[in-house]
Automatic annotation (TrEMBL):
<feature type="transmembrane region" description="Helical">
    <location>
        <begin position="33"/>
        <end position="53"/>
    </location>
</feature>
<keyword id="KW-1133">Transmembrane helix</keyword>
<dbReference type="GO" id="GO:0032259">
    <property type="term" value="P:methylation"/>
</dbReference>
<dbReference type="GO" id="GO:0004851">
    <property type="term" value="F:uroporphyrin-III C-methyltransferase activity"/>
</dbReference>
<feature type="region of interest" description="Disordered">
    <location>
        <begin position="1"/>
        <end position="25"/>
    </location>
</feature>
<feature type="region of interest" description="Disordered">
    <location>
        <begin position="352"/>
        <end position="375"/>
    </location>
</feature>
<keyword id="KW-0489">Methyltransferase</keyword>
<dbReference type="InterPro" id="IPR007470">
    <property type="entry name" value="HemX"/>
</dbReference>
<keyword id="KW-0808">Transferase</keyword>
<protein>
    <submittedName>
        <fullName>Uroporphyrinogen-III C-methyltransferase</fullName>
        <ecNumber>2.1.1.107</ecNumber>
    </submittedName>
</protein>
<dbReference type="Pfam" id="PF04375">
    <property type="entry name" value="HemX"/>
</dbReference>
<keyword id="KW-0812">Transmembrane</keyword>
<keyword id="KW-0472">Membrane</keyword>
Amino acid sequence: MSEADLPKQEQNTPAAESAPPVGTAPARRGNGLALLALLVGAAGVAVAGWGLWQVRSLESRDQQQLGMVEEARGQTQALVQREQLLSARLAELPSAAELDERRRLLVDLQGDQQQLRQRLETILGASRKDWRLAEAEHLLRLASLRLSALQDITSATALVQAADDILREQDDPAAYAARQQLAKSLMELRTTTQPDRTGLFLQLGALRDQAAQLNPLVPAFEDKGGVLLDMAAEGDGRSRWSEWLETLSHYFRIQLNADQNIKPLLAGQSLSQVRLALSLALEQAQWGALHGQTQVYQQSLSQAREVLDGHFNKENPDSRALLARIDELSSQPVEVKVPDLAPTLTALQAYLQRSPEAADGTGPEAADPGEGAEQ
């Protein structure tokens, strides 16, 4: 072997050593095919899943479309029903001739209502002025009734003043005569003194309570001759004889002056009867004071005074005070002379009759002619 051949052998030896074995190449090819098969299978699974998802989407869309179709079908049926109902209502509507007839009837009804309202105003009075004047007449009648029945000056004055205010609101020159009479009546009422009947009634009631507790005065023995002074015993200046006479004087009394009337001592049932008679007399005086009966009032107080004079001593301070109070109340007036409102009422009625509404027969006097007769 030559030296030139030696490097070639040396060069060929490593190449032979680095070359792969003969059996390893097919194994690598099998692994690549398996990996490719896995990739293909995975792609097939993905394609199958995507296809299944597409199928599910199509089915859901189909169901939604079916729901929308059903909803549209329901709306169509509702529209058909509304159309049928509208057609039925249109069929029930009246025709043009019937509408004209109903319009004519409505106009006639409105005209009748207006005529009825006018007739009602004619009967009841065309204006508020007529009724205010009728109210003034009623107030004046009521004031006259209060004066004649109760002698109530205060209430009558207020009623007459209210009637005058109504005439003043009318501002009618024709009411001058009526207002003149009203002014005279007001002046007479305001100058008339109203008796305090309630105060007299209460004062008499207080006297009744005092009379129910009235007791007689027990007489006491008084030695004016000086005989018992000589018989005084030692001690405090009073003898046993004087004490005995003082005790006996509560049961017996010797009156030496025969010209004086001796009043018996009241006790028990006699005292109750006298108190009852005095209370009844004062109660009757209360009735007379409250109802303005002067004769009854004076007679009742006179009876009470006679009861006190006949059964109680003047030395009794309670009976003397009660008698003085009765004399003081006897001078109090319980009745008053009330003014006559008849001329004023006549003047007001004359003014009402001269008013244009009354002359035409449309005022309240013509509407109710029996009202004045009843009152």
